[in-house]
Amino acid sequence: MDVEILARIQFAFTVAFHYIYPPLSIGLGLIMVIFESIYIKTGNKEYETLARFWTKIFALTFGIGVVTGIVMEFEFGTNWATYSRYVGDVFGSALAAEGIFAFALESGFLGVLLFGWNRVKPWVHLVSTIGVFFGSMFSAVWIVVANSWQQTPAGYHIVGEGLNARAEITDFWAMVFNPSSVDRLTHVWLGAFLAGAFVVLSVHAYYLLKNRYVEISKKAFKIALIVATVFSLGQLATGHKSADGVAKNQPAKLAALEGHFEESAPADMYILGWVNKEKQEVSGIKIPGGLSFLLDYDFDTPVTGLNAFPEDERPSQINAIFQFYHIMIAIGIFLIIISLYGNFMWWRGKLFDKRWLLWTFVFVAILPQIANQVGWFAAEMGRQPWVVYGLLRTSDAFSQAVRANQVLFSLILFFIVYALLFVLFVYLLNKKIKHGPYDEKDDDDRPLTKEITGVITGN
Amino acid sequence: METFLGLDYPTLWFLVVGALFSGYAILDGFDFGAGAWHLFLKKEKSRRIALNAVGPVWDGNEVWLVIGGGALFAGFPVMYAAMFSSMYIPFMLFLMFIIFRAISIEFRGKEKMKWWKKTWDIGYSISSIMLAFLLGVVLGNVLQGLAIGENYVYKGGGFFEFLNMYAIMTGVTTLSLFMSHGAIYLLLKTEGRLYAKLTILLKKGMIFFMVSFGITTLYTLLYIPHLSDAFKNNPSLFIVPMMAFLSIANVPRLANKRKFKMAFLFSSVTISLLLVLVAIELYPVLLFSTLGEQFNIDIYNAAASDKSLGIMLTFVAIGTPLVLGYTFFVYRTFRGKVKLDEHSY
């Protein structure tokens, strides 16, 4: 194992683990804002209870998102020093903007959101909730901008030669609005809303099945279902836009997504399939000319295939990319179907009568998570062998000074610490769900006077 | 070279990064420090109150680390790459402990068993101590210099190279500084017996700091001469160490008078002044190379383009009032002594 492979494994592992949490934070943030706004508008205590309950779960995802995010930031410097030097001028400014504008906003209001329920007026609390939610949305903006710049660089010029070459910013707004950032940002936002909405659906479906907290669960379920329906349909549009952008800006990636090898020919679209790279063929269920049609509304339009690119300028893991991309799409379609079916049952007044449907909703929560992950895998693997598309190769980007045993050591440590962190997450999530939305006063939470008397008298 | 107020952009950004690191050291400094004392508090209630004194703010304090790291990455990419890749192990350990500390804080209050709380108490305290120590270790290595060669690539190696005599000294000094700072913070947040106990701990902390700071300063003067150059060339700069010493001496004076608000202020001033000292010792160098002066990484060869720095200076101008506003708002909401309720750890 050399440094490059270890560093790539480490990045993939730490970023995939990190990406469980921020989308959940964004999605739950939206739901919290909705619940709390309804509470303030109607004065209905049930919505306050829901907002408080989901705030606790949000706190958990946010906290883990923060610590695993610090890891990501440091990792650019530790494992990818050459990359950091090369892109710091551009990529770094996006990260700095995230820190100054987004992250400070989130964390600033987080304390009030979590601990301020009994200390500030309801509307001040709502403003804090909105502040945290907007902060997390802005975080996504800057991070997606930074990554989109890697996919479709713009607004820069290259200075220097060889090891000292680097990209320098020439036009900040051209960098921010590079060709792929807006499409990808909306796609990421909606993916996050879906991750949050389906977790809310899952937990409240579980309560309904167990006959606990029935009244508030029905209310929460309906709201989350509306969110899920709107955004699962919206995701079709953003996904389509993103794919169009990939076709225009990263033709090699698009060819890999659909396993399209021929240099220039109409391209099929597969519902599912298996790519054989050696034979250059895909076996599976396909819509002939489907990809051509989606890109140009004509089944006979030629699409650039993988063979149009030299071997060392196109991705190599074609089947993996193909599978990840198709899993994402299949999940997207399934989420639309299940949401619409839920709405249909609601319209017939039978939403909560079918136990199998509720059980389905309990388990569907994992699917948006998987879709978010595999979508990123496809996006990042499809960019290979480049770390900055067309400019810098991944194999040139890692730290010259770091040794394989150091990376292996930290990889093992991360593995242990993240395993512990994941156990913590599941344990706390389970505890919070079991405990339910209502606070029962337990012995540990006696009023302060007793607490202080205890300290003074030494009990 | 673009300039603003007579200073060039890299110098301005050097000040920005310094200010961010100061903010980070002052804020996360007190919660690492409070955590370091954790095992010295014997009673469950005391520990719980001490933990909840940092409860609402520790997460927010780490924001400064993220922003500081981002600022270094964006403003001095070469420094960022060299520093993080050459001190790979301490930074990785730092990350592990920061995660482990978060885990400990979250886990601690969730089960009632004695062994459970004890385990996470130890985890919380050890990781707080290690984090403070590792920050000092990194600082020590930067001051002393690293084996940076051609193309800003680190030529050293070895797993434990970062743990040298001087780095251990600066690590211990940083830990002792944060412990005093954290004890003062806890005094602001507690009352009764715990408060009385903390006054005793604070005295110990301050003595610990004076001794380790004295030894480190002496060692610096004797064995790391390049750090004194700035003062030799410009004697008027001696005002800064003078102020730092006065500020350090002022903390015990105020603590004896039980004026802990002022003591906390001066403890924060002390941290800032010590970092100003570091900045003067370094400027314009960011990282000394032990392989020869021509390999030094300074603010000019490490800086991003003026264009990029200009954009970010604008960010800072817009963002700073906002960040200070949020911080003020949060600390105002949670002012006063700790009150435990159902949202507490």
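qc> Residues 214-249 of chain A form the longest helix (36 residues).
qc> done
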